[in-house]
Amino acid sequence: MAICPNCGEWHVYHTVCGACGYYRGKLAIEKEAAV
What we know:
ribosomal protein; Large ribosomal subunit protein bL32; structural constituent of ribosome
């Protein structure tokens, strides 16, 4: 496990962060905004 440098949440190494959608400092997946 690793800490996402963008949002600070835990995620699996070498995968996109499920919380913010960033991978290696770049937006990989656009997350929908919570309403």
